[in-house]
Amino acid sequence: MLDILLIVLPVFVIVGLGYLSSRIGLLRDSDIDVLLRFCTGIAIPCLLFSGVARLDLADNFKAGPLISFYGGGLVAFGLGYLGARKIFGRRPGEAVAVAFCALFSNSLLLGIPVTERAYGTEALSANFAILSIHAPFIYLVGIVAMEFARADGRPPLATAKAAARMMFRNSLTIGIAIGVAVNLTGLPLPDPVFEGVQTLGRGGIPVALFALGAAMTRYRLQDGLGEAAFAAGLSLLLHPLITFLAGHYGFGIEDRFLRSAVVTASMPPGINAYLFAVMYQRATGVSAATVLLATMFSVVTASGWLALLHAVAP
């Protein structure tokens, strides 16, 4: 178990250094925003583009892993909504924001580096297959659910337009879309250009982890701690459990797909879960607390899932 923890720990050390740097004043609040804009607007889209542009789509797009991962996410989302409504007495829109935390795993900023450290760079192709539809799918579910749940929701057509705007203005989605276009058209891309974009993207991962830690100084655990623990449990335990059971026993998927799907599902909700709540001004405190609490505990839970995968899919 110690060996597994040592795989995960360096990733979270970078997050912790970012948190500490911000807490002691080495980073100003505006500096954090610059780092986040660089990562989400430039570096990470480059990483997604380079990961998808030369990806063997036929070999990596399989129904079993995708259904296992997204099916688990949808179950966690549904239970998160019901729990927020029935157990914690939240209004419909607030319940959607809480449930979104259970649905949105930090597949990129944490899922990629943890998978790479555990299984090597060559294992990331299955991660990129999941990532290629992650943002569009997650935002579609969240936005549609929110628009229909809140009392002042818009008509269905306006809801669809809002979802489309959110997805296609997202720089991560744009990076994926351009990569898919290059892949499908076979557009020749000179190796120096591709390697430059790829290097920029990979260099953005440690910066993104550092910025993620720094941004967490903005959150508080005091806001809705019980609800935060509930949503974090769905994200860190239920989602990967369903993904594992469906993938391993239901679909019998290959080990490389099982590893990527379960590791990605076991990641805590990312900053986007909080930004989604802010966008609608619903349960923002609980969402922020969930991101912080889940990220803290994921050091242990992710190690546990890696230990299970090591035994089942070495």
Instruction: Give the helix level as a range of percent.
Output: over 70%
CATH architectural label: Up-down Bundle
Order of helices and strands: HHHHHHHHHHHHHHH
Which structural class best describes the helix and strand composition?
A: mainly alpha
User: Averaged pLDDT, please?
Assistant: 87
How would you describe the shape? globular
Classified by CATH, the class is Mainly Alpha
| Overall number of domains | 1
The tally of strands reads 0
Strand percent estimate: under 5%
The CATH topology corresponds to Na+/H+ antiporter like fold
Biggest sheet character: none
Radius of gyration: 19 Å
Give the helix tally. 15
Intertermini distance:
14 Å
Residue windows where pLDDT falls under 50 for at least 5 positions = none
Q: How would you sum up this structure, described in words?
A:
- With 314 residues, this protein is an all-alpha fold.
- It has a single domain (2-312), classed as Na+/H+ antiporter like fold.
- The chain is built from 15 helices and no strands.
- Helix 1 (2-23) runs antiparallel to helix 6, helix 2 (29-53) runs antiparallel to helix 11 (191-215) and helix 14 (271-280) packs antiparallel against helix 15 (284-312).
- The mean pLDDT is 87.
Secondary-structure map:
Blueprint: H1 2-23, H2 29-53, H3 57-60, H4 63-86, H5 92-103, H6 111-119, H7 124-131, H8 134-149, H9 156-168, H10 171-185, H11 191-215, H12 225-250, H13 255-265, H14 271-280, H15 284-312
